[in-house]
Amino acid sequence: MGQIEYFTFNNTRSINLATGSSERDFPSHRHAYGEIIVVGSGAKNVYRIDDTLYTLTEGDIALIWPMENHEIVDANRENSLIVQYSNTFADSLFDFKRIANHYHDLHIICVNSHGPLARRLKSIIDKMFHVWDSDKDNREMRCARLLLDFMLVLDEHHKELDADISNDGGKTVSDTTLNNIISVMDYIKNNLTADDLSQSAMAERAGLNKDYFSRAFKEVTGMNFSKWINAIRVEKAVSLLPEESLSLTEIAMLSGFKSIPSFNRVFVEYKGVPPSKFRKM
What we know:
Strand order of the largest sheet: 1-8-3-6-9
Order of helices and strands: EEEEEEEEHHEHHHHHHHHHH
Low-confidence stretches: 1-12
Number of helices: 12
Radius of gyration: 19 Å
Helix content: 40-55%
CATH topology of the largest domain: Jelly Rolls
CATH architecture of the largest domain: Sandwich
Strand content: 5-15%
CATH superfamily of the largest domain: Regulatory protein AraC
Number of domains: 2
Distance between the termini: 19 Å
Structural class: alpha+beta
Mean pLDDT: 88
CATH class of the largest domain: Mainly Beta
């Protein structure tokens, strides 16, 4: 079961940045945000992403894609740089989703084996933090632009990085299918209260048979359809919980849950605590 990640992020819709946590560990958890970590200094920096344990060095880049289980086992969080980006923001751009789909099995860019690339990527993250800490207007938009630069640099170096991907980048989903699935994902996010968001109905909307849609959807998102839609419903609920005028029942309905028991059960599965407790936090 995933845990909630406690970190002092600013409340924005698309980009969050943080650093300076004195704690060296955090239990296994997941969230709908994608995450980029620039590893801090120190003799020991151990992270777990999915089922793989990584011992990293200062300047390594860790890529955690949305809804992947990850754990900080023992690491210098005081000097590490953390960037989170909204899955909704990522999914709104076809090229972003295409790059993420290609690199879904890539989690670490080591400074020892990819020095120039790692340093170039770190410089982009450094610029994001400089902008974030400044008083410039439109800082979220400026950081979003830098995040796109980060993804573009990854794409430019695909030949260098493909050897580090377990399947050598051998994704089977075509750009057309990817585009159709992203359209379905956008439709679901904008229509969580629709009567029929079943896998069969969404496969038909994508113009794919149900079996192929199921396989392609999992390849694109890293999750099966039911888990993904539950994750989206939970994140919608999280965005509504600060609205004090809304009851938990109203939030459940607006997020597409059919009953309070199912809302509570799924919320606890993804966030580790009931929505009532999460709201108080």
